[in-house]
What we know:
Blueprint lengths: L1 E9 L7 H20 L3 E5 L7 E8 L2 H8 L9 E7 L15
Antiparallel strand pairs: 1-3, 1-4, 2-3
Amino acid sequence: MREFLVRITTTVPEGTPPEEVAARRAAEAEHAEELAAAGHLWRLWRPEGERRSSVGIWCADDEAELHAKVLDTLPLRPWMTVTVTPLAPHPSDPGRADGSP
């Protein structure tokens, strides 16, 4: 699987009933747990001072799968702006899988 840096900004459309927002947010949290258990969501942060944004490390076989089978399944996806950056290994990464210095 490949790693991707994903930045998401969620904008709830004006006039959306609060109960719909609450239901989608609850479903989003539940689905995020499922995606984490399946190995697609590795880490997730909220940039300081940005309530509507998140930055995370997501994983999929390729970018097409990331969109079709992962990000597009999020309950809040219709309200999201998503930026995906594919990541490549860095030779100085202290967490390299081969264990070399």
